[in-house]
Design brief:
Elements: E1 16-19, E2 24-32, E3 35-42, E4 46-47, E5 56-69, E6 74-78, E7 82-85, E8 92-96, E9 100-107
Antiparallel strand pairs: 1-2, 2-3, 3-9, 4-8, 5-6, 5-7, 5-8, 5-9
InterPro entries: DHCW_cupin, RmlC_Cupin_sf
Protein name: DHCW motif cupin fold protein
Length: 113
């Protein structure tokens, strides 16, 4: 895909509410052809309500959280850290004890070849 130069003013993108198993996620989403950009905030006490198989690039903007893999591995990410995973490469979910703000990028480029 080719994307013309554009700026994103996240203040103009409304938040949508996504309840977790516990806590709440607030998404601001910009959907482009084959590419989704999100600012996601997890409340304190957030636990995702599902295991995700989708690929993502997740960058921690503020706070900290855990990315738990279904095989039992747990990765702690703090401000300034990033993780990358392709579609169907792991079952993962997010946990945030204290709340966190993330930039999440996903799209067709993360599909397995």
């Amino acid at each position: 895909m080719n994307y013309p130069f554009q700026t994103i003013n996240w203040d103009n993108i409304p938040k949508t509410i996504h309840p977790g198993e516990t806590g709440t996620a607030y998404w601001q989403t910009l959907q482009l052809a084959g590419l989704r950009l999100r600012i996601v905030e997890y409340s304190a006490g957030y636990l995702a309500d599902h295991w995700c198989q989708k690929g993502h690039i997740v960058h921690c903007l503020e706070g900290d959280f855990e990315s738990e893999l279904q095989n039992g591995e747990v990765f702690q990410l703090t401000k300034g850290m990033t993780y990358v995973v392709s579609d169907e490469m792991s079952s993962h979910r997010s946990i945030s004890a204290n709340g966190v703000k993330l930039l999440i990028v996903d799209g067709d480029f993360l599909k397995q070849a």
